[in-house]
Amino acid sequence: MRLDEFDTTYRFEGKVVSSERISPPETDEVREMVIDIQDGPKFEVGHNFGIIVPAESAFGSKDHFRLYSVADIPASAGNGTQRIVVAVKRVSYIDDYSGERYQGRASNYLCDLRSGDRLTITGPYGTPYKIPEENDANIVLIGMGTGIAPFRAYMKLLYATRPDFAGAVRLFYGARSGLELIYMNEERDDFAQYYDKGTFEAFKALSPRPHWSDPIAWDEAIGDRGMEIWTMLLDHKTYVFVAGMEEIRDHLDDVFAGIVDSREQWLRRKAELQAGGRWIELLY
Questions:
Q1: What is the count of structural domains for the chain?
Q2: Which residue, 58, 74, 184, 78, is CA-closest to 121?
Q3: What whole-number distance in Å separates Cα of residue 144 and Cα of residue 205?
Q4: SS3 140
Q5: Rg, the chain, Cα only
Q6: Domain check: are 168 and 277 in the same one?
Q7: Is the same domain home to 187 and 226?
Q8: Closest CA to 223 of 209, 195, 243, 203
């Protein structure tokens, strides 16, 4: 679904509570923002929501719309106010024709907001990430970049509501380099608390040459454990959650097709998982 196909008619106001950098100084800036919403819909883990950047009226442009993911368990801030958390990376891009560098409107708008500032929100969109009914279910989480944010929320929800959860949990996290692994770096290592669970394992998928824009090595991170993951995918108690940029979809199809040496077999199994509500994507 393209951004221009989302219904942004219903809009409501959010108020910034705090904005904190959570990435090391030598990497791209990623901020964690806490936002309060007094009169809005209910948010859940696995939802994403839209941010409306006001139009630059001097240039006659339209409002700008971008999607972001819920990065923590939505909570109550009292008086009917809902509190959500979002991770935002400050983005810039180079125009293919002019070669000029431009600042991403939505990400820079959000990263520049500070406590007390107000913003316009739409949504939420997507399918909430549900906790499996089976206490011994397998859970596979695959995220890229700030796509790890909803899994940070999901892990909190999983062990908060099911502290005795006994199923295998496998997290695959893609980034250009180890320094860009938010919530798994020196600034913040939220996932470290789950290693002693015995069933949780996390694997990093990094680019072999981060400064050359080489693709993230999903084939190594997932492919090296291919048969274990494939066995999980054949189990009716396995749930897969994918989050990140849309390009991750094609990369994963290539990796899993390679594991079973058959694209047809893989796409058939993926369709079965999707039909059963056991393959959920949160892509943008």
A1: 2
A2: 74
A3: 9
A4: strand
A5: 19
A6: yes
A7: yes
A8: 203
Q: What is the pLDDT of residues 25-56, one digit of tens each?
A: 888 899 999 999 998 899 999 898 999 998 77
Q: Which of 124, 152, 178 is the last residue of a domain?
A: 124
**Domain assignment present for 217:** yes
Mapped onto helix, strand or coil, the DSSP state of residue 125 is strand
- How much is the pLDDT for 274? 96
d(CA 19, CA 277): 35
Q: What pLDDT is recorded for position 91?
A: 85
- Considering only residues 249 and 194, tell me which one the structure prediction assigns the higher pLDDT: 249
Say yes or no: 84 and 170 in one domain: no
DSSP class of residue 198 equals: S
Q: Which domain holds residue 97?
A: 3-124
Model confidence, pTM: 0.83
pLDDT at 108 over 80: yes
Q: Please say if the pLDDT value at position 213 is more than 80.
A: no
Which of 59, 93, 124 is the last residue before a domain boundary? 124
What pLDDT is attached to residue 211? 47
Task: Choose among 171, 273, 167, 281: nearest CA to 222.
Answer: 171
Dig out the tokens for 134 from the structure: 């089976």
